Amino acid sequence: MKSKIIWLVIPCYNEQEVLSETSKQLQDIMYGLMEKGKISNKSRIAFVNDGSKDMTWNIISQLYEEDGIFTGINLAHNRGHQNALLAGLMTAKNYADAAISLDADLQDDVNVIEQFIDKFLEGKDIVYGVRSARDTDTVFKRGTARAFYKVMKFMGADTIEDHADYRLMSKRALEGLAQFKEVNLFLRGIVPMIGYETDIVYYERHERFAGESKYPLKKMLSFAVDGITSCSVKPIRMITTLGVLVFSVSIIMLIYFLVVWAFGRTVAGWTSIVISLWGIGGLILLSLGIIGEYIGKIYMEVKERPRFIIKDVLYNDKDI
What we know:
By secondary structure, this protein is an alpha/beta fold.
């Protein structure tokens, strides 16, 4: 059987501190798989430079010059992790039988890459990398992660718990992903919608090899909101339910006050009035905010702006 062409797709933003070690480890793994005959000599390691401000692209270019196993994809502007990942996957789709996406910081255990490929060779189109434990996380991060997946499940989004963006996708799965045209990307929610045969590889997530996390709390919260609003309309339905509930309570209160007024026992109730005003006002603002999130996404979608623009591609199509 002809060996399959596998691409590793690694988005990079200001990763100059880790690229040397990351490239070395991935290089050793890929050449080892080639020697075993599990992957083709046309397989590649593709680094996607997401508008980095440091020496990331220079390092990628140097790696390409030293060894043709490396491929460089340089975006014209910083477009965010999800768009950079999509740019790499859509490029890989044109050359590879399957692509494995992972982060550049070596937190994803690269030693399980062979397990991904084994499951692909068994006929799986999508293989998810799922964390077996969260021992390396802080209590806060562990708690917020659990809350995020519970909220996503409650909202009806089909996501894989403890799975980030460490996954293998076959060529036809990538072609399926290409049919999703939305600008507001949340790949963790989109990929499960594609279908096909799936499987899971469990791994332990490591500490970041070097550098700083590109996902501080503010970005994590923004990412969570994007995920919920991209994959579910349940928040809007909840507003409708809340509106019906508040309206029903107001009718009951109206009847109550009319009865009290009829018996001549009306008493000025400043506390209840103030609480009602603040409560209803808060609900209105919250509702407007949620609706605004969806309107903002509609605004971005109708513009049909490109999700990414590739400036340069470094690729050698010869056998390694």
